[in-house]
Amino acid sequence: MTARLLVISASTRPTSAGRPLAQWLAERATGHAKFETTLVDLGELALPFFDEPGLPADGGYVHQHTKDWSSTVSAADAFLFVLPMYNGGFTAPLKNAVDFLYAEWQGKPVGLVSYSAGTSGGAPALAMLHPVLTRVGLRPAPCTLSVPAITELVGSAGEFRAPAHLAASADTVLDSVGDLLAAPVAA
Amino acid sequence: MTARLLVISASTRPTSAGRPLAQWLAERATGHAKFETTLVDLGELALPFFDEPGLPADGGYVHQHTKDWSSTVSAADAFLFVLPMYNGGFTAPLKNAVDFLYAEWQGKPVGLVSYSAGTSGGAPALAMLHPVLTRVGLRPAPCTLSVPAITELVGSAGEFRAPAHLAASADTVLDSVGDLLAAPVAA
Fold it and tell me: Is A48:A65 a contact under the CB 8 Å cutoff?
């Protein structure tokens, strides 16, 4: 059976350079034997800030937007988070999207790709995100990808112009997610 | 001259137990000789997710909500962030409110108070927040306060029932912010 991969593009900026990267990664994952891929853009998803009266770990959501997001995340076997770094950390929309749910994430692998206009590629944001992911029971794939100088890699038509080494790195991350899917989880 | 302290209540949940804590801290800071205090509730502020086309470090905001938030933060000499912990980290609304601006934070002291329903008091969220604060040029006060079992401290009328030791701890944090205000910043 083909595993269902949900690619989450974590920027909500109208001028995001990460959206082309996320689209390219989603296409790459579709070409990858292991995955049937869906891309969700957190800007288009347009969740409000967390507004459930109860705790996500208790379930019992009252808002339709929460129930819809729960359905989307429940339908996935694994995730690929594609995130910019703001001020040394992950972005608010991504944290918010994670915080809305709980059981829906449990035990599922997540691949991590960060990017930045500068030289770090946003790697510190991945490090900061790690304890959040494990708190909700996600299993971060050991191979991550951080892309520096992202704005240099987006063409005037908004297309992602991937250098060859990035394609190989993206496949490595996708393989890493696939390996986790195949690995048994201790009960 | 009395320093202007902006207390930022970082939860947007309708049932937040942190709002009474933030209100109590704002009152305490007003009673404190050093501060003229304003309380802003991020739930009421209702910023959207970051949506400026440009980078905050470049200024040149296009949205009225950004200009308003810029005015509010510019008017403050120091801050007190009152934040819950979600999944081991700070909340999305707080990160978003920080990420919207840049120059407005530079060089100003910030006191940190976290809380949780559990036993940690949300202290890990403060640790996670630290590099974000320094990235935008805020000066975190060395004394922080983390309040465990927050739901046990809120009465049925939504009032914060502070044990005596918390009052002393809150004053220590406020003093710590005041000390930073008085300390010279290297040019």
Answer: yes
φ/ψ of residue B138, rounded to 5 = -70, 155
- Residues on chain B touching A43 (C-beta within 8 angstroms): 49
* Backbone torsions φ then ψ of A163, nearest 5 degrees: -65, 155
ipTM over 0.85: yes
Q: Is A175 exposed, middle or buried (0-12, 13-18, 19+ CB in 10 A)?
A: middle
Q: Report the C-alpha gap between B120 and A13 in whole angstroms.
A: 34
A16 pLDDT more than 90: no
For B53, the closest of A15, A89, A92 (CB atoms) is A15
CA atoms within 13 A on the CB side of A128: 29
Residue closest to A95 by CA, chosen among B64, B111, B118, B97: B97
pLDDT tens track for A136-185: 999 999 999 999 999 999 988 888 998 888 999 999 999 999 999 988 67
